[in-house]
Design brief:
The chain is 23% helix and 22% strand. It has 2 domains: 1-79, no CATH class; 80-179, EreA-like (biosynthetic domain) (EreA/ChaN-like  fold). It is an alpha/beta fold and 179 residues long. The protein contains 4 helices and 10 strands, in the order ααββαβββαβββββ. A 3-stranded mixed sheet has the order 3-9-6. α1 (8-30) packs across α3. It comes from Aneurinibacillus aneurinilyticus ATCC 12856. InterPro entries: Emycin_Estase (IPR007815), Hydrolase/PRTase-associated (IPR052036). This is Erythromycin esterase. It holds the Pfam family Erythro_esteras.
Length: 179
Amino acid sequence: MEMSLYNEKEGNEFRDKIMADNVEWLMKVMYPGKKIILWAHNDHLAKNTSKISTIENGKWMNSFTSMGELLHKRLKGKEYVIGLYMNKGKTITIATYKPFNINPMPKGSLESLMMQSGYRNVFIDLSKHSTPNKNNAWMFKPIYAAEDGMTSEMIRPMLRPIIKYYTGSIRLFGLLLGK
């Protein structure tokens, strides 16, 4: 109920703060000293979401501070965050459950780079790369990626250096989401 009093950014930050508080409570009270696997949408897990620029109502603005960003600050980098990406597939809209196709991402995007590996599914351990070289330089430069695989009518791909947002990244070929 309280979330309805906020604009979209404030509402997301309110929700993500509560989620981060809940995860921290689970870590300290329910499972102290244990490893925890947390599965959530990329927008909620990324370590630096407030630096992502998004288009809202036709204007560029910084995104919200996510649960992942709050936990990254609280846990001081002890977490391992994996972003999930797909290059194409089918899904449904959240509001209407109307199905639609996700078209392949453009050349030079994170998804297209991962497809160039020749493998159907790819995992990249970004934590093993602290300095750029000829093979990993793309990790340290801004790159387009679809945060949730949505087409441009739903969310615009965001330009960012991937290494600042995740510890690892996975591309799943032809992922099907929804009912």
